[in-house]
Please model this.
Amino acid sequence: MRHIISVLMENEPGALSRVVGLFSQRGYNIESLTVAPTEDVTLSRLTVTTIGDDTVIEQITKQLNKLIDVVKLVDLTDGEHIERELMLIKIKAIGAQRTEVKRTCDIFRGQIVDVTPAMYTVQLTGTSDKLDAFIDAIGASAILEVVRSGVSGIARGERVLSV
Amino acid sequence: MGVTIARLPKLFTRRGSEVELLSGGEMIMRALKEEGVKIIFGYPGGAVLHIYDALYQQDAVEHILVRHEQAAVHAADGFARSTGEVGVSLVTSGPGATNAITGIATAYMDSIPLVVISGNVPSHLMGTDAFQETDMIGCCRPIVKHSFLVRSIAEIPSVMKKAFHIAKSGRPGPVVVDVPKDMTAPTEKRPFVYPETVKMRSYTPALKGHAGQIRKALDLLLEAKRPVIYAGGGVVLGNAAKELTAIAKRLGYPVTNTLMGLGAFPGSDDQFIGMLGMHGFYEANQAMHQADVIFAVGARFDDRVTNNPKKFCPNARIVHIDIDPASIQKTVQHIEVPLVGPVGPVLADMVEMLNQMAVEPDQNALSAWWETINGWREKHGLWTGDRFIRRDKIMPQDVIRTLYEVTKGEAFVCSDVGQHQMFAAQYYKYDQPRRWINSGGLGTMGFGLPAAMGVQLAHPDSPVAVVTGEGSIQMCIEELSTCTQYNMPVKIINLNNAALGMVKQWQDMQYGGRYAGSTYADSLPDFVKLAEAYGHVGMIVTDPSELKEKMEECFAMKDRVVFMDIYIDPDEHVYPMQIPTGSMKDMILSKTEPSN
Model:
């Protein structure tokens, strides 16, 4: 099953490599990974999506907690949560294709952020599933380039992950 | 660069005394002194010359010059294992650091508290592929509890304080402090105040067990009809042998120890049913398999213990105490009562709670259980008779038995890795913790001799035996020179079978006796001459009848290193042995009893 694990860790050099290294060392899977400092400059927030059964996920959270640089973590998929991913996608847009791409983009509530006579660059935000659906709708032959940010997530309601 | 003295806000400590200005090199030495370190093991080189110069100019810390950095770490490790204190090594950058890696990994796998200080090239050269540069933080990442790269001279005191704190608290482990050369320059002085305490928001190991879980654990333990206490290295590391013995005695349950736990419960006590696992005692493995309740204390259900985890102790309800939550339910899933905490305080709380409860163990069930266990012991126990066929050669089992007799069970036994290690675990009874020193997790050949140096320095008046083989001893044999320099009179018990015995045993059992890369009988050195070349005493033993006398002679030479080259039966295998992929109880008992 897919899990989104959100980690607060010390904003120290080397901290990220410890987390990433842990995953490869112990054979855990990383679907996506995002990391950036938080409002507190001494802390970074890392979000990793991973796939595994309950036993594997339990080990992942325990092993992450063991890392000295990890302050706190939560498995967001344990409760109600919001997940978002940002995608920038360059799409061939010539002739009749231009209106078709524009229409699909509107349906998915994407924004065209760059235009040339031959292509559009579309910015799209949503769950990973939504981004996948957009890619399917456009079709592989029209896609020039895809950049995805990886998943960021936050719990719904008043639950917070903080020190 | 750095903070100039004039701009520093305070030059006084909280106690009001004036702050000293020290170089980074001096700070490292002073931090070691503050931590109570008396001995470090190291090897100098370009990147650590400033630190060595600071070392030269102080007398709180003694330095032992090894002959290879791997040995510097093993020696610090042996020191730590035998004392419970943090072991310290100092190595230079590049090859010095990478040579230390095997030692660090060895300590990591067995949770040994170490601080390894490695030099690195000056900060401005890092990342340029400079001479003797290596990314030590990157190299050691998967095999350390934590690591620090020193980024300013001023942070050295707090980094050192944290390094020692992390190494020895919680589940112990090695910590690397990587120090670029410019951080230790004698011309760059900064105020030195050593922190008295350390607080890290991201690191707070448990200091006590959860009272509710302790209660649940006791309830389950008291329901047991066929209980086993399965105690591991955590009991030794947590200095909890006394507490373990107290609860085991209070309950009257049988105790088995893992390879790392030997000595956690007295080996010569009747309640001890021997080591368990791959080469464990018949009665221990049977008892585990038949148990209805298993009390796992500071043990991690290693694959060398459980055999096939899917078939592991199918009827057992399990209580598991461990300081490391990640050790619980890692390999064996059906843990009924997990209990996170340091074993000593948890066991002490358990005994106290037990004394307040009105319930006692089921004595009828327990005596029936003991009857069964004693039956197994009588039939196949390693200590109840000869479980091997004695031929006209010296049997390795007899060597260890003789060692036990000659040293009256009081020696520190430092083992290398292989058949001799298993014989030393099976046939020497360890009545105290920290007497059995071996690389259990990583299985590092070459560990024994350097580890014994650390043990001997920590216990100058105690007999220290290196139980080894002609394979393992040659992996760090250069340390015979270090033994000469610092007069460390270890006794080397070399079980010479002219082959890599454990490899050969597997090749006998599973590869049709095809000895690929496991023999070298024609090219072995003359160990007696070799020992003598280093200034030590060498002796050859080939006749079983002279074994005891020679060994007594060896241990009588209290202030000499003695190398006993003992020619043993080269065809002997280690038994019992679990059948791979089977359950705990599936064992081969000898060459002639294929299975039970």
Notes: Chain A touches chain B through 20 residues (CB under 8 Å). The radius of gyration of chain A is 18 Å.
